[in-house]
Amino acid sequence: MSVATKTESTTAADATLWKTIHRVVFPTDGDTDTLPLYVDFNPAQRVVAKDDAAAKSGASTTAAVPAAAMLGSRQRTDYVQGRRSLRLPAFRRVSFGTYFNAFPASYWRAHTNVEKVRLTVEADGDATVIVYRSTPRGTANRVESLSVAKGTPVSIDLSIMNFADGGWYWFDFATGENPTTLDRAEWSVPQPDGFVAGTLSVGVTTFNRPDYCVKHLRTFAESEDLTEVLDCLIVTDQGNRRVRDEPGYEEAAANLGGRFKLVEQANLGGSGGFARGMLETVKAGKSKYVMLLDDDVLIETEGVLRAVHFADFTREPTIVGGHMFNLFERAVVHNFGEAINEYRFRYESAGKSEEVHDFGASNLRTTPWMHRRIDVDYNGWWMCLIPTAIIEDIGLSLPVFIKWDDVEYGIRAKANGYGTVTLPGAAVWHMPWTEKDDTIDWQAYFHQRNRWLAAMLHSPYARGGRMPVESMLVDVRHLLSMQYSAVELRHQALEDLLEGPVHLHRNLGTKLPEIRRVRSTFPDATVRQDITTFPPARRVKPPRFGRQPSAPQSLPGALTAALSGALHQLRGVREGAADFPEAVVPAMDARWWRLVGLDSALVSASDGAGASWYKRDAKKFRKYMARSVALHQKLLLRWDELAATYQRELPNFTSPGVWEQTFAANPALDSAPAPVTDK
User: Fold this and answer.
1) Cα dihedral sign for 608, 612, 613, 618?
2) pLDDT at residue 569, rounded to an integer
3) Closest C-alpha to 454, from 344, 335, 375
4) Which helix H or strand E contains 579, and what residues bound it?
5) Residue 255 needs a FRET pair 20 to 30 A away by CA distance; which of 148, 361, 363, 428 works?
């Protein structure tokens, strides 16, 4: 099959129906931070690794965009004329080799039966369209140059059969001697016989973010394209600041007409809210898909459509997720794919992808690793489309409140023959996690319990591989850091796990208040906003040889530091350390190797909201160490028995019937009308 075939239009002899699945769009809010995700004004074509061997291997490159190219880059929001149009001055060229407007050919090649894609471009004047494709190594190849005349759409058919390992299509748009407007550009694929487009319901879980939810209602109501595929927007409100009381709610809900449902229930966490969205969708029986969506995100509506279109063409029912961009740094993506390290049973970046990539500094054309297709094990539920056929087969979310519910669902789906794709061009903007440490707050319980639960359900290694050892080491790290509240919660998690599956639904609505009561008794978990209310820091003993603590650079160094710290924990607390903190430690420096030599410290909260007074307690250290050893030993001895029990009961505690009983037992907490209200 040829790479490209130019066509002016579909001829009468060509009876193929073409489905538009990816339109070129632009932001209309004048935000220069997001513009690099749509239009590339950079004259640089690409950047490759300096080392030729690295380039051939497809290895990640550290090469930066040349300074001259950066100086030549100009973000021009005034060129944007509308959602689908861009006007350029004479003799100007831009590229749509960008995150939102390039076509991710390799993903369509890998997961659908589509063999070719058609690019159609229309402008109000004469212009030139230069079509490019990339290889998995990130090198760009010019495919074809097309002349566009005023008012006459031009099309080109492009094969995707040689995109097995990676690669994208995109085009550059260049004007001649007159200013020209790109009126529209879109990518379409042939519809197979009997093709039926799917529709979706969207499930949003919220807790005390009514303003964000009303924005969601407005976003979906104002997008005519979304309402064509939307059956229902389901908002599961689990807070006490009600969505229905938010200014603008009534109008926004009315604009959605019969495509909105508000559900009110007690706080059952993200897993309880998303399970409710899944259940409501399946029970309604209208939608082919449900999209799970966080409440605190900004949506690119075109990405929702692309996820639906992609799912319509996959060979088998497939979970289709979107990427997460930083709400504060709009051109920065969290990572390009999520995978599970099965031996350690922890999540990490998939394939050759890199975390925290800034498209404003290095766009798609100048980022070689991004051209290799990234295959994932799961997608986060900030934006994740799930076919209802999968839900009917494998059940709803785990009843785990928060953490690992999305990870486990992806693993469970994979074990049952259903894949997950994180689709480029489908994304939301979400608040980042870099400004907080949820491993030491109330979420420490759920991090621990849910990771162990997921490992017992799915680990292919005897007794969880390395995961139990790492769990023990994390306890040690927290104890060396005087973070006793986190260790207490982690131990409660293991004790509940030992109880078996019966505790999962029973504790879902009550565990969080219990956790908060426990944490309130620990100084390291008590945050004061005004740091001046603490006594001033007084160092009792200066650093040895005047050296400030630093991170160990090797395993022997880490073991030596840990052993020295453990010995220090067994000694009595220095005189005066209980009355005055020995140091003030910023949250970013509050690592075990920094805290291990102190008897007390003021540690700022990771969100900057205040500080806590960490105090070493030799008695607690000994008690928790002994308890940690005993619990981990008990879990390892009972691993096979517990794993078999959880695996046997998995279809039960993820079933719609059991979840419905939990919902019925946990109605909304105030005296509102009936928990479920149709609008």
Assistant:
1) negative
2) 78
3) 344
4) none
5) 428
Residue found by looking up tokens 């489309």 in the block: 385
Region of 404 on the Ramachandran plot (φ > 0 left; ψ -120 to 50 alpha; else beta):
left
Dihedral angle over CA of 463, 349, 205, 197, nearest 10? -110
Token pair belonging to 656 = 């719609």
pLDDT tier for residue 585 given thresholds of 50, 70 and 90: confident
Judged against a pLDDT cut of 90, whether residue 274 lies above it is answered with yes
Collect all residues with Cβ–Cβ distance below 8 Å to 667 and sequence separation of at least 6.
264, 265, 266, 675
Question: Are the C-beta atoms of residues 187 and 25 closer than 8 Å to each other?
Answer: no
Q: Is residue 198 part of a domain?
A: no
Token representation of residue 142? 């010019």
> Is position 475 within any domain?
yes
Q: What is the pLDDT of residues 160-170, one digit of tens each?
A: 999 999 999 99
Which amino acid appears at position 415 of this protein?
A
DSSP 152: B
3-state secondary structure at position 561: helix
Helix and strand numbers (H, E) in the chain are 20, 26
In a domain, 591, yes or no: yes
Nearest one of 281, 394, 318 to 655, comparing CA atoms: 394
CA 61 to chain centre: 24
Which stretch of 170-184, 462-476, 555-569, 609-623 has the lowest confidence by average pLDDT? 555-569
Q: What's the Cα-to-Cα distance from 669 to each of 204, 246, 250, 666, rounded to whole Å?
A: 19, 18, 22, 8
Task: Determine the average pLDDT of the residues in 317-338.
Answer: 95
| Domain hosting residue 497, numbered range | 444-570+577-635
Q: What letters, b where the CB count within 10 A reaches 16 and e where it falls short, cover 349-382?
A: bbebbeeebebbebbbbbbbbbbbbbbbbbbbbb
> Does pLDDT of 7 surpass 70?
no
Cα 289 from Cα 281, distance rounded (Å): 8
The DSSP call for residue 191 is P
Identify whether the C-beta of residue 196 lies closer than 8 Å to the C-beta of residue 120: no
Q: Which H, E and C letters describe 25-75, residue by residue?
A: CCCCCCCCCCHHHCCECCCCCCCCCCCHHHHHHCCCCCCCCCHHHHHHCCC
- Number of domains the chain is built from: 2
For residue 594, being part of any structural domain is answered with yes
Domain CATH number, residue 98? 3.90.550.60
Copy the structure tokens of residue 120: 């159609």
46: tokens are 């690409």
Take residue 318 and report the two structure tokens written for it.
Answer: 């497939």
Residue positions annotated with a catalytic role: 406
Dist. CA 547–CA 1, nearest whole Å: 68
Distance CA 159, CA 105 (A): 9
